[in-house]
């Protein structure tokens, strides 16, 4: 099938308050979100849904649906992100987390890694006093107070550069982000990869907290409570890159198999926590232990946290991640025990 994906940037520009707009025409915001991130392929969407979105955006179906356009993936070197919810270069990433789940640590690590790759990093500082943001400022090139200052910085640096823009959800609610992205389009600034955080932790209660997204990182309370960082939920985090054939077939196959294993492992954990692993049949016990190893492997020490953890940060190439995960899926008996896989880089 021809590559099809929603024109997320157009939707974001044309329908700022998409949650209310979607509900007003009988669409579930969660469905719109899943179509935007690729969790539901456009080719499987109901025609009435696509037509309703086009009408909301005041555009034609050809404008709403992008066909055959390539999507460039930013390889972060962070195992769980690259495997389950990769970043589309020039797209928008939304972080959904309650306070204490580690979203600012993940953001700090992303800024550190992308700045080292030559990206110009900008933070739009939210109104009010937010001392928790101090930890991410080391790798921010510019801190701005509003969209006017942000635009001036980009003019100064040059429109041809790659930018990473970080902003709080409050900028989305106020409409500032939509105005800024509209300015990007008008001035030909296309290579802006945006990270939207949620300092108040309210996004978890919203169906479409940021409007359409290219990538969604859903943080997981259970992983955070068990100190399995980064606490990114591998089941509910997703990306438009996963849609169609944008993703390498090998990557897609391994991603799907790993997600299936972790989904079943989570179901079995509920039983083990109450009754113990001895209550599981032999085959289920093997799946549980396999999932336990994969979950542990997906933890990773960060460079920005070295001072606090005493562990050296690890960068794992995507090819290494895929090979390691494939090995856990196909030959788990050759892998160390789960407790030896916590916070390592690649498998030895």
UniProtKB/TrEMBL annotation:
Residues 247-320 form the ATP synthase A/B type C-terminal domain. SUPFAM superfamilies: C-terminal domain of alpha and beta subunits of F1 ATP synthase, P-loop containing nucleoside triphosphate hydrolases. InterPro entries: ATP-synt_VA_C, ATPase_a/bsu_AS, ATPase_alpha/beta_chains, ATPase_F1/V1_b/a_C, P-loop_NTPase. Its EC number is 3.6.3.14. It comes from the Bacteria. Keywords: ATP synthesis, ATP-binding, CF(1), Hydrolase, Ion transport, Membrane, Nucleotide-binding, Translocase, Transport. One of its GO terms (cellular component) is proton-transporting ATP synthase complex. Belongs to the ATPase alpha/beta chains family. This is ATP synthase beta chain.
């Amino acid at each position: 099938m021809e590559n099809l994906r929603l024109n997320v940037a157009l939707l974001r520009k044309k329908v700022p308050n998409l949650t209310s707009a979607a509900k007003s025409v009988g669409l579930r915001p969660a469905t719109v979100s899943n179509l935007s991130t690729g969790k539901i392929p456009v080719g499987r969407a109901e025609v009435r849904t696509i037509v309703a979105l086009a009408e909301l955006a005041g555009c034609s179906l050809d404008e709403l649906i992008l066909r055959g356009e390539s999507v460039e993936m930013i390889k972060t070197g962070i195992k769980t992100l690259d495997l389950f919810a990769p970043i589309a270069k020039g797209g928008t990433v939304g972080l959904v987390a309650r306070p204490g789940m580690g979203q600012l640590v993940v953001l700090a690590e992303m800024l550190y890694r992308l700045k080292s790759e030559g990206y110009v990093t900008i933070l739009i500082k939210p109104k009010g006093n937010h001392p928790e943001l101090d930890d991410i400022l080391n790798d921010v090139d510019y801190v701005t107070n509003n969209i006017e200052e942000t635009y001036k910085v980009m003019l100064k640096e040059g429109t041809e550069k790659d930018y990473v823009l970080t902003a709080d959800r409050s900028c989305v609610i106020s409409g500032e982000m939509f105005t800024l992205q509209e300015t990007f389009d008008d001035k030909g600034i296309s290579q802006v990869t945006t990270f939207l955080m949620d300092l108040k932790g309210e996004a978890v209660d919203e169906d479409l907290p940021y409007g359409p997204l290219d990538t969604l990182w859903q943080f997981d309370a259970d992983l955070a409570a068990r100190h399995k960082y980064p606490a990114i939920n591998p089941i509910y985090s997703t990306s438009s890159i996963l849609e169609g054939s944008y993703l390498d077939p090998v990557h897609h196959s391994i991603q799907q198999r790993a997600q299936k294993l972790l989904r079943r492992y989570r179901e079995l954990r509920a039983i083990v926590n109450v009754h113990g692993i001895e209550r599981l049949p032999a085959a289920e016990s093997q799946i549980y232990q396999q999932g336990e190893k994969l979950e542990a492997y997906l933890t990773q020490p960060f460079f920005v946290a070295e001072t606090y953890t005493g562990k050296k940060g690890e960068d794992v190439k995507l090819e290494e991640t895929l090979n390691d995960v494939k090995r856990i899926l196909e030959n788990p008996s050759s892998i160390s025990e789960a407790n030896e896989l916590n916070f390592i880089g690649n498998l030895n």
